[in-house]
C-alpha cells in the first residue's frame, strides 16, 4: 500500500494538507489532510497484488506504533463501502469526498 498525496484545493473549510514525518529521515513522509477538528485523513492505494489478495479473502492488518503512549482512536474503511448499522458505536468525522469513477 502507498499513501496518496492530497491536492492543495477542494477540501473542507479549515482543513490543510500536511506531511507527517517529512523532517524525520528514518520515516517515509505520510501525506494527510488535517481537518479542523484535529483528525488526520489519509488515503491509500493498493497494488494489484494487494487487491488480488484482498479479493481472495486476505485481511487488512494495521500496525500502530504508540511508543508506550496511549493508543489514539483509529477508523479504517474501504472507500465507498458503508458499514452495517451499529457496526461502529462512534466513529470520527471524515470529510465528504466525491465518489471516484467506478466506485459508485
Note the topology.
Layout: E1 2-3, E2 16-20, E3 30-34, E4 40-41, E5 44-45, H1 48-55
Antiparallel strand pairs: 1-5, 2-3, 3-4
Task: Give a brief outline of the structure.
The protein is mainly beta. The protein has one helix and five strands.
- What is the topology, as strand order, of the major beta sheet? 2-3-4
- Point out poorly predicted stretches: 98-104
The dominant shape is globular
**How do the helices and strands follow one another from N- to C-terminus?**
EEEEEH
Using only CA atoms, what is the Rg? 15 Å
Residue-averaged pLDDT, rounded? Answer: 81
The number of helical elements comes to: 1
Largest sheet: 3 strands, antiparallel
Indicate the structural class.
Answer: mainly beta
Proportion of residues in extended strands: 15-25%
Give the helix proportion (percent range).
under 10%
End-to-end gap: 22 Å
Number of strands: 5
Describe the structure.
This protein has 104 residues and is mainly beta. It is built from 1 helix and 5 strands, in the order E-E-E-E-E-H. The strands form 2 sheets. The protein has a 3-stranded antiparallel β-sheet, with no helix packed on it. Strands 1-5 form a two-stranded antiparallel sheet. A hairpin with a 5-residue loop joins strand 3 (30-34) and strand 4 (40-41).
Amino acid at each position: 500500500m502507498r499513501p496518496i498525496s492530497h491536492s492543495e484545493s477542494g477540501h473542507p473549510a479549515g482543513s490543510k494538507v500536511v506531511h507527517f514525518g517529512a523532517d524525520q529521515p528514518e520515516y517515509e513522509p505520510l501525506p494527510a489532510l488535517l481537518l479542523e477538528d484535529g483528525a488526520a485523513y489519509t488515503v491509500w492505494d493498493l497494488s494489484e497484488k494487494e487487491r488480488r489478495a484482498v479479493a481472495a479473502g486476505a485481511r487488512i492488518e494495521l500496525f500502530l506504533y504508540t511508543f508506550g503512549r496511549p493508543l489514539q482512536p483509529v477508523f479504517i474503511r474501504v472507500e465507498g463501502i458503508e458499514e452495517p448499522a451499529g457496526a461502529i458505536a462512534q466513529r470520527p468525522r471524515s470529510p465528504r469526498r466525491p465518489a471516484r469513477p467506478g466506485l459508485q
